[in-house]
Automatic annotation (TrEMBL), chain A:
Keyword terms: Cell membrane, Membrane, Transmembrane, Transmembrane helix
Coiled-coil zones: none
UniProt superkingdom: Bacteria
Membrane topology: Multi-pass membrane protein
Protein name, as recorded: Leucine/isoleucine/valine transporter permease subunit
Species per Swiss-Prot/TrEMBL record: Shimia thalassica
Entry's Gene Ontology cellular component terms: plasma membrane
Residue ranges crossing the lipid bilayer per the database entry: 71-90, 140-163, 170-188, 219-239, 266-286, 292-311, 318-335, 355-372
GO molecular function, one term: branched-chain amino acid transmembrane transporter activity
Pfam families cross-referenced by the UniProt entry: BPD_transp_2
Subcellular location(s) of the protein: Cell membrane
Main location: membrane
From TrEMBL, chain B:
Entry superkingdom: Bacteria
CDD domains (UniProt xref): PBP1_FmdD-like
Record key words, sorted: Signal
Record's keyword annotation contains RNA-binding: no
Signal peptide start and end residues: 1-23
Entries under Pfam families matching the protein: Peripla_BP_5
Phylogenetic classification of the source organism: Bacteria, Pseudomonadati, Pseudomonadota, Alphaproteobacteria, Rhodobacterales
Name of this protein: Aliphatic amidase expression-regulating protein
Organism in which the protein naturally occurs: Shimia thalassica
UniProtKB/TrEMBL annotation, chain C:
Entry protein name: LIV-I protein H
Subcellular location: Cell membrane
Membrane topology: Multi-pass membrane protein
Top-level taxon of origin: Bacteria
InterPro entries reported in the protein's UniProt record: ABC_transp_permease (IPR001851), ABC_UrtB_bac (IPR017779), BCAA_transport_permease (IPR052157)
Transmembrane domains' residue ranges: 364-388, 417-435, 496-516, 547-567, 579-607, 619-636
Keyword Transport: yes
Claim: Electron transport is one of the keywords in the record: no
Protein species of origin: Shimia thalassica
Gene Ontology MF: a single term: transmembrane transporter activity
Broad class of where this protein is predominantly found: membrane
Amino acid sequence: MQRSFFAKNPSVLVFLALLAIFTLVVTVLSEGFGMGFISTSFIKTLGKTLCLCLIAVAMDLIWGFTGILSLGHFAFFGLGGYMIGMWLMYERTRLIVVESLSQAEIPPTSAEVVDAIGNQIFGVVGSSEFPLVWAFADSLFLQLALVVLVPGILALVFGWLAFRSRVTGVYLSILTQAMTLALALYLFQNDSGLRGNNGLSGLQNLPGVTASQDQVSLWFLWASAFALGVGYMIAAWVVSGKFGSVIRGIRDNEARVRFLGYSVETYKLAVFTLTACLAAIAGALYYPQAGIINPAEIAPIASIYLAVWVAIGGRGRLYGAVIGAAFVSLLSTWFTGGQAPDISLGFYTIKWVDWWLVLLGLSFVLVTLFAPKGMGGLVDLWTDRRVPNRHGADLGPDDGALREKEASE
Amino acid sequence: MNFLKSTLAGSMVFATLATSALSAEDTIKVGVLHSLSGTMAISETTLKDTMLMLIDQQNAKGGLLGKQLEAVVVDPASDWPLFAEKARELLTVHDVDVIFGNWTSVSRKSVLPVIEELNGLLFYPVQYEGEESSKNVFYTGAAPNQQAIPATDYFLDELGVEKFALLGTDYVYPRTTNNILESYLKGKGIADDDIFVNYTPFGHSDWSKIVADVVALGADGKKVGVISTINGDANIGFYKELAAAGVSADDIPVVAFSVGEEELAGLDTSNLVGHLAAWNYFQSAESDANAEFIETWKAAMGDERVTNDPMEAHFIGFNMWVNAATEAGSTEVDAVRDAMYGQEYSNLTGGTAVMLPNHHLAKPVLIGEIQADGQFDIISQTEEVPGDAWTDFLPESAVLKSDWKDLGCGMYNTETKTCVQTLSNY
Amino acid sequence: MRHLLIAIIATLLSCTGAFAQEGAIQPVLQNHQAAIVKSSRKTIAPAIDAIASSGVPQAQQVLEVWAAKNMWMRKSDGVFFIAEKAEDKTYRLTDFDTGQTIDGVLKADLKQIKPNSGIRAMIGTALVRFQLMDADKDKRQDALTSIERDPEAAHLAPLRASIDAEPDAGLKAQKQRLERLLTIGYDEDTQARVDAILEMSGDLGVDVRATLNPLMTTTRAVSAGDVPQGLNIAQVLVPGKEDFDTEAAYELLVKENLAAPRLSSGEMRAILAEHIDGGSIAGVPVAQMNTLENRSKAYASLAAEGKVPPLVTDETIQAALATHVFYDVYSEPSAEVTDAAQKALNDISVNVGMNQALDLTLDALSLASIYFLAAIGLAITFGVMGVINMAHGEFIMMGAYTGYVVQQIIPDHTISIIVAIPLAFAVTFAAGVAMERLVIRWLYNRPLETLLATFGISIALQQLAKNIFGTQARPLTAPGWLDGAWVINDVVSISYIRIAIFILAFIFLGVFLFIMKRTRLGLETRAVTQNPRMASSMGINKDKVNMLTFGLGSGIAGIAGVAIGLFAKVTSELGSDYIVQSFMTVVVGGVGNIWGTLAGATMIGFLQKGIEWLNPSNTLAAQTYMIIFIIIFIQFRPRGIVALKGRAAGD
């Protein structure tokens, strides 16, 4: 089974090998390892990029393979971050509080410890009570479980409602966008109990860990690389078997698949929930590297950018999603970071800080119009694979299907 | 794909190495961490320009410690996590000696862990909600007791306001400030029922119901006043609705903590004459230093540009840092910090700002009435008020005190006489 | 030297003036110089009183000049003048008493006296007696406004005296109304007050409630034994019933020093810490003090030893409460007045409640019309053509910026709006047509990709706007005749600009219906939408129809932009604020039907205002719950409120 999986999907093996080499090279060149060629801040950027690649894989699974354009996956990503962030904040504060209270003449009661933690965490936003959502924050194990459970259950309930009432296509996209917006607005409120607009901060400091950030950033890089590798394998495994054929069928013609006797809703729901969990894991690894999570991260625009990455990378192929996410987000960092040199036209100087978004927007239109296969399409030219010549006809029923190449995978 | 990524990574690394090799040790680097794009760009770009102007001026005077100053400008793009990343980059890749930056509270909270870990030095120029003290941050903007409390006193004493509407945008600064004010007002004998609180989202535009609610507060026969911590664009809709409802400043005065000269530029102020704002600085302040500052600013940036409070904060902060470094004979963070305490520098409104051991300034509080030309008429100016990191009007923080000079602690519990924590609470 | 000379002369003049002229005001001012310069409401009262009661004819002028911030002080000798700015940036001073002027005084030698609005109100009050009978109608109006703002018992008599002689009908009515209100508050005759209350009951004015409510103020009091006699008692309270819990009752007792305070856990801890004795407290080791039980036990032992006051238990609290009586007492001594006022307020509150509901309805209608206006263009492009245009919000923004640019060129607000509306339509129509030709027509069969491509255009346009106009909000000012509000009464009012938007929304509904039902283009659009191939075979140019329809939808978005910019703000993010709501309006209402969009906008508007009314302190929550409601609503009516049936429904 294992053998045949890799044999059937040689690209997975190539991908994993490249990922391993990349991680190794970066590790050796890092400050934490001693070489110091790559700064810690850039290690963090790379680690975060790997997490973004993972959520892009999830997005590809739901959009590229199942045909559901979800504009809500960053909500799951953010929720994952919030769940791990709660434990990180609680535990870090607990250590400080216990240390501080132990200096007092009388040992604290456990209620006093909890009160003091609450005061520290919520004093900033003008409250001191622990809201109900923090009930499990003292336990790493439970909170880790919640990383998967909360987004998973949200996706399950939302998906069940939406798919059951046969909301499809564009409507579903708008509905998922509304869900993201509602969640972001909810978290923006102070009353939500997650510190409103400030969100959870100081997440880069792991409680009880004295190692420097140079080290910690490497650990997270490894964890992110590992998660991406595993996530990629899961995604590749899902799309390679019969399950994969069914979801592709749903993408190309939902009604036909239903007439063939498959429970379309169940398949969609399974993929939707699985990808939500993948997104949440990516988020849980991303935010300790970013250091802070707040509702702005969940804004609907983030999820649309995710779709942009996948589209530019090339949907319907997993490595395309990874290429897109890595390429666009790194390029974005480079352009907005002010590192890109200004171009002087004599009468006007193009500052990339100002013009990068215009460029991104337009290139996006161009990709949609002229290169629907995205950057992944370049791989086809490179490998020069032989495919059955259908004289350019589409496989699917719609003009827009354009999925001939996938048939050979 | 990975090949591509590693080449990209590699090229970026070498690019950074190359730049750092070029700028050799003969300059002192000053980091400027203000958003140049995104939602906060409008406010923060002005501060970046201010910093560049101040650094140029200092270089023209011969630099610092015999070396020229070099500004390292990065763009955190109004993206809060990016602030942490850029701060790390400034401190480790560019090796800056000091950072001037940030506007929003959340961006400051994002940066705090990084500068505390790497022992950096940050000058933060904006009015904020307090309840924080970091060894590595000098807060040159106003703490609540330097803006909100005096403005509320002005309402109580000078305008005779008996009923308060606290309107704010839903984020940490208004939340905490309103909390402090609620507690303060109750201490002054204002009943619970006489305090109306409302929070609106960023960029809110539909103000009709809220303005109607505020007008309806007058039914008790008590004088109503509005304390507004509404942020940014949302003010425009709010003031337009106020004007449409015919609410005059004499009936229901509005004092704003986030509306300055820059914000008024987007408004026709003829209907708002008489409403108030509280700051530590107004462009209309009459002093020679201010006239000179405005002149240099307009010469550098154009005649239509205005000056505002956070710019003055950077002006004071930067000059204090220069003097402290000169005194310490080095730009090393710990030495400069020690030299900062007690630093004095004349502020632009004609007094002297003093740096206190709690990393806050003693500054005068000004209250201005909006005029038809978009400027403020200063109608009240207090003596210098020392900034207080931990407000005295909330029970949890009343017992806390910040003193980095003698106690070496930013969160010292005066009741138990212990230091709660030496890192800041982010 | 010259200044010094002038100063000396001026001083001499003023001194001689003071002695020579009977009734000079300057000495009065000089007496209170410090208070006037300090300009604080707390210390200014004697100065104002002195001026007002000086009996000098200039007193009124001085007060008026002072309130208008035109009184200046010469720094050299502290004499007050009226100052006017001359052309050469110097000031011309006028003496209050002699009317003599001094030209060419530099600003540095002067200090402007800036009374704050609290002091200005006091000056206004002091001026009332001069102004009530003034020949100038505006000044009489000022006097009435001052009385309205700060009613005083002293105003009642002069006000009554001035009513008969009032020539202006409007002012007379106002004076009569004020006289009634002052009677309620300050007349010495109880019956007159009750009569006035009865007369005004049912009146919706805020001023009536503002007069009646202070009569109803109560203070909560407690006394041992029975309720004391001779007080105007509002109600007797029973601890633990209604809003008055035992906790609050006991706190009141503590506050009145009738009972010992309860210990908070922090205080208990502090007391215990004081009694640490060799590593233990009352025999209990300190290390065990980490539970509340052990602490209470240790405290009880300490109390038994008499070292600390005994713990206040629930039993002692109950016992203390049982021996006291709690009541609210009116500060107004007359029960007749308070009864009448209570009854009048009850009548008013029913009336106010109904009017508030009406006001809320107006607000909701206004919000609905704004959503409708923002969504109507989308109803065409998305609803009729099925094209997802994420850049719709940016078309709204372009419209608003067009309005701004026009206003820069044409300063007259009325003309500029008249020019801006068609121009905004033209600009966004052109942009829409360009976008349809260049991008959308290649993607008609790939709706999801249309969504993404138009999103790309959206972020590019938004950034372009930032690059061109900057991120700061730009002013788009409504013409003067749209300023202000239509005030039905003190509770119900709506601003003219919102009424204008409401009307505009209805005009567009009409235009839309007319185009779709009565014109060739509408017919062709419907034909192309329903069956493009058949339409083509009937000789309809499909491309042209699509292009024009899309242009029309975009153009309407542009006009909506001008309207939205007028009432809110013009920023590059204007569009993205409305895009999600607009889509939801269309989807909730039902795609492909303008009535559905109208129903959707109405529902969302009313829903949002309804939730805001339930939770007035948090507008953000209202938006959140509204979106959640919409998500759930769509689950049960996936095709919206007005669902198309049969073939028109598509699949």
